[in-house]
């Protein structure tokens, strides 16, 4: 067993484990997506020097990300160059990425109205509004810093995570208002749309686990922080269930609806509303399986997209996380069988040929890069939770994420947003 006394060295090239003098909660963390007992077991293996090769490699990647986050940020929605229609920079703002001007921009038509949809083709204009990018960086940083603290006990990670969280959610001067009213706005249009909520739902649930890890005694994370974030989440959840935008998104039949259910279940569970969270998971099974999954395991709504490989995996990322939340609530989504006979495992197995062989084995449109590795997390989940030997075999014969496969210490399906750099 290798021990490190005093301050923990966190070189990107060397993985050093046990920590001295840092008090950490002995009981498993009350995470709502990831299995807390499993995380506690991994931490024990890491600190006792018995981590597997995969765990050590994965933790090295996590620490690399956390080390970058120690000096990046903090980020805030108030840092964007212009305000949303409300005039309040505390309101999150982003532009719909697949919408483009259809007319030349002139003094009389400065925006090039009307805007038209080009599915899968990202308009670089959207990147001029910083909230989307800063949200991605900030939320990833909060998660990786919290996870790094949990495994190493190094107080620097926890304190930096707390600073990032306060800056984005709590400090009056920089906090985000608890709504997504102006997410993915379409220039030239004033109609209410719910689709922009995906900016939040695709990755917000990871923060519930970050908060839960910090709640276990992290230095720099105070009782005021905990009560503040719960108050913010309570308002956010209400908006995510009752606003006109949320009602439209809850009615969405494709991945948008899955992600909102998953996010709302995660927030509810973190806030202690376990019965509400369980109800969301159970209703999602009954409502969404018959609409999203054909009897053969295909996903017609996602296959119709120009980036069908991406969106088929994207939707399954939401289902993988919903299944993980369900597991912590006593619901086994992997065992659910719809009236047409389809199961989540059958849907996952549809991806195996293309994950191993690439675009040649995917008879659907996929513009842009065909990234086989994005199926890795849902294959890990299927192998572990559904005992899917085919998915396990596929993992051994397919490209894995270029930045490193961190499943061994995350043990949860992760968003398909670009990683923190």
pLDDT < 50 runs, ≥5 residues = 1-25
Mean pLDDT: 92
The counted number of beta strands is 4
Helical amount among residues, as a percent range?
40-55%
Assembly status? single chain
What is the radius of gyration? 21 Å
Give the CA-based shape: globular
Protein structure class: mainly alpha
Biggest sheet strand order reads: 1-4
Number of helices in the DSSP assignment: 17
Distance between the termini: 32 Å
Proportion of strand residues: under 5%
Order of helices and strands: HHEEEHHEHHHHHHHHHHHHH
Largest sheet: 2 strands, parallel
Give a description of the structure:
With 421 residues, the chain is mostly helical. Helices cover 49% and strands 3% of the residues. The protein has helices at residues 36-48, 53-69, 131-152, 155-170, 198-201, 205-215, 223-242, 244-250, 255-270, 274-292, 300-303, 308-329, 344-349, 352-357, 376-385, 389-396, 407-410; strands at residues 93-95, 99-101, 115-117, 182-185. A two-stranded parallel ribbon has the order 1-4. Helix 4 (155-170) packs across helix 7. The longest helix has 22 residues, at 131-152. The radius of gyration is 21 Å and the shape is globular. Mean pLDDT is 92; it is low at 1-25.
């Amino acid at each position: 067993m290798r021990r490190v006394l005093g301050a923990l060295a966190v070189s990107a090239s060397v993985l050093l484990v046990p920590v001295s003098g840092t008090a950490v909660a002995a009981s498993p963390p009350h995470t709502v997506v990831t299995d807390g007992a499993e995380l506690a077991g991994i931490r024990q293996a890491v600190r006792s020097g018995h981590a597997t090769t995969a765990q050590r490699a994965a933790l090295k990647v996590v620490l690399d990300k956390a080390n970058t986050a120690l000096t990046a940020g903090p980020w805030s929605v108030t840092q964007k160059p212009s305000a949303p229609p409300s005039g309040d920079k505390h309101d999150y703002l982003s532009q719909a990425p697949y919408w483009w001007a259809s007319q030349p921009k002139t003094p009389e038509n400065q925006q090039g109205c009307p805007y038209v949809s080009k599915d899968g083709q990202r308009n670089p204009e959207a990147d001029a509004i910083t909230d989307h990018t800063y949200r991605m960086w900030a939320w990833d940083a909060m998660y990786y810093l919290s996870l790094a603290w949990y495994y190493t006990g190094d107080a620097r990670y926890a304190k930096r995570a707390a600073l990032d969280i306060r800056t984005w959610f709590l400090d009056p001067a920089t906090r985000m208002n608890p709504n997504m009213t102006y997410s993915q706005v379409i220039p030239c249009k004033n109609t209410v749309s719910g689709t922009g909520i995906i900016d939040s739902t695709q990755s917000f649930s990871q923060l519930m686990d970050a908060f839960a890890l910090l709640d276990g005694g992290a230095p720099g994370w105070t009782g005021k922080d905990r009560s503040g974030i719960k108050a913010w989440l309570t308002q956010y959840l209400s908006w995510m269930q009752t606003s006109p935008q949320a009602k439209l998104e809850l009615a969405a039949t494709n991945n948008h609806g899955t992600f909102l259910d998953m996010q709302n279940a995660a927030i509810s569970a973190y806030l202690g509303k376990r019965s509400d969270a369980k109800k969301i998971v159970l209703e999602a099974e009954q409502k969404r399986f018959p609409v999203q999954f054909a009897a053969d395991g295909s996903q017609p709504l996602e296959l119709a997209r120009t980036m069908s490989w991406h969106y088929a995996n994207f939707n399954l990322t939401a289902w993988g996380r919903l299944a993980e939340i369900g597991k912590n609530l006593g619901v086994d989504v992997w065992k659910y069988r719809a009236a047409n006979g389809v199961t989540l495992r059958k849907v996952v197995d549809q991806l195996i040929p293309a994950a191993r062989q690439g675009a040649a084995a995917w008879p659907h449109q996929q513009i842009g890069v065909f990234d086989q590795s994005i199926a890795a997390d849902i294959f890990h989940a299927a192998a572990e939770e559904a005992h899917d030997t085919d998915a396990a075999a596929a993992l051994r014969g397919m490209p894995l994420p270029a930045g490193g496969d961190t499943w061994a210490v995350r043990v949860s399906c992760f968003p398909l947003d670009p990683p923190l750099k």
